[in-house]
Amino acid sequence: MRKFAAFFLLLLPFQADADDVYAVVQNGAVTGFYANAAPSPAPPNCCTVMDRGDPRIVSFLSPAPTPAQAYDAAIAAGLVVTSTATSALNGTYSVTPTAQRNFASIAASIGSGQGLPHGAATISWRDVQGAPHVFTAAQILSLADAVRDYVYDLQQTQTAIEAATVATWPAANVTIP
User: Fold this and answer.
1) Model pLDDT for residues 27-50, shown as the tens digit of each residue
2) Which sign, positive or negative, has the C-alpha torsion 96, 102, 105, 109?
């Protein structure tokens, strides 16, 4: 009876515990996995049992964002602004396409000599948290320039990375006067 039990155990498939997966590994990198059981029939290079916490599994399940995804995330996060002259302007400001159009409109108005809306000496501009900040024409132009430059740098970085050129995403913070 003892021999039969040993033989029977040899026929059972290997059972991974709940934290294990059956991984397909090619050239040391995980290229696929099966969460609960190895496939039948097993494909070539299958299957290495790995813990779900193995860095190769984590990397496979959470790949780096695409350049477009990284760009979108940076736009959504906004730009952290620190003013050296007026700390009341410090905040994180939106850089979405809508915000960019609003900045461009105000900047064009100032540049054409029309000044701020309604001829005001200052305007209120909200940060991403909804908190209002009071800007003069010169200060709003500094913020508009910073947003323009940041978005331009994001676009250039995305383009470079998509072209397989080494590039670093710009910092999401800027100092204005």
Assistant:
1) 666 666 666 566 566 656 556 666
2) negative
